[in-house]
């Protein structure tokens, strides 16, 4: 198990609320299939450990181990694909109060696998919840990035924008990253990298994790995100400030 260090252990011993009814899903968008070690997962394991120490049920998916057909429909087998594992993963997405996307950096960008995951999330974004909001409303999102080149903030910016655009609530400082020396050299989990001991990365990972927990707690206690002014069925029916009530036409 990841050693959290004294500060994280102390924070976990005295949390401001109970989080043991929350569920989190970490989707690792590494290009490496299992069982190859993932440096991005190694960093994410710090966040996972904090959550589990607080009783959160954590699910981890390595997306590249699954066949995610290209496309923006909920099930691409209905649109010509021979196989599509996304519907099963989507069930795990919807079971989670918190979604954390993990990606390495390649050529300054998030991985191609991360792009595919966002596309598939987008394919389900038209679904509605019981309150008539888009399906991801009431859920919380964050991002973890690793690499040996510049681009961590760019990747986080892109992914956090994508999550909030789909309906996720993005807390303050909802991303964490580690960057090694540019060019060939040790990656995060390699011996001598300094990654696991990097105070800046560890601090940001802790901040991100606790902010995800706080926000998910508030949303769950509130019964989700307020359903006023953001219900698609009412908008489609014309119930908005600049349109007459369709019942009186």
Layout of helices and strands:
Blueprint lengths: L4 H9 L9 E6 L10 H15 L3 E6 L23 H9 L3 E9 L2 E2 L1 H12 L16 E8 L4 H15 L8 E5 L19 H23 L10 H5 L13
Radius of gyration: 19 Å
Arithmetic mean of pLDDT: 93
How many angstroms does the end-to-end distance come to?
64 Å
Number of helices: 7
- Work out the helicity level: 25-40%
Strand content: 5-15%
What is the molecular shape?
A: globular
**What is the N-to-C order of secondary-structure elements (H for helix, E for strand)?**
HEHEHEEHEHEHH
Helix/strand-derived category reads alpha/beta
Count of individual beta strands: 6
Biggest β-sheet description: 6 strands, mixed
Q: What low-confidence regions span 5 or more consecutive residues with pLDDT below 50?
A: 245-249
Provide an overview of this structure.
Helix 2 (39-53) crosses helix 6 (199-221). It is built from 7 helices and 6 strands; from the N terminus they run αβαβαββαβαβαα. By secondary structure, the protein is of the alpha/beta class. The protein has helices at residues 5-13, 39-53, 86-94, 112-123, 152-166, 199-221, 232-236, and strands spanning 23-28, 57-62, 98-106, 109-110, 140-147, 175-179. Strand 3 and strand 4 form a beta hairpin. The relative contact order is 0.15. Strands 1, 2, 3, 4, 5 and 6 form a 6-stranded mixed beta sheet that branches.
């Amino acid at each position: 198990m990841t050693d959290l260090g004294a500060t994280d252990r102390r924070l976990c011993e005295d949390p401001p609320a109970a989080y043991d009814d929350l569920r989190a899903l970490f989707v690792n968008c590494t290009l490496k299939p299992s069982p190859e070690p993932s440096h991005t997962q190694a960093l994410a394991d710090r966040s996972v450990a904090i959550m589990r120490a607080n009783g959160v049920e954590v699910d981890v998916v390595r997306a590249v181990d699954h066949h995610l057909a290209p496309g923006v429909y909920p099930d691409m087998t209905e649109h010509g694909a021979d196989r599509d594992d996304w519907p099963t993963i989507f069930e795990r997405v919807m079971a989670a109060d918190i979604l954390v996307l993990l990606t390495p950096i390649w050529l300054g960008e998030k991985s191609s696998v991360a792009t595919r995951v966002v596309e598939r999330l987008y394919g389900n974004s038209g679904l509605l919840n019981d309150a008539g909001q888009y399906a991801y409303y009431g859920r919380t999102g964050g991002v973890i990035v690793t690499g040996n080149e510049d681009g961590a903030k760019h990747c986080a910016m892109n992914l956090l924008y994508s999550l909030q655009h789909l309906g996720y609530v993005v807390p303050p400082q909802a991303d964490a990253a580690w960057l090694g020396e540019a060019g060939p050299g040790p990656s995060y989990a390699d011996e001598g990298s300094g990654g696991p001991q990097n105070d800046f990365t560890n601090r940001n990972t802790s901040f991100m994790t606790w902010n995800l927990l706080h926000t998910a707690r508030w949303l769950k206690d509130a019964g989700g995100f307020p359903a006023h002014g953001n219900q698609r069925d009412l908008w489609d029916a014309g119930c908005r400030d600049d349109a007459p009530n369709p019942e009186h036409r």
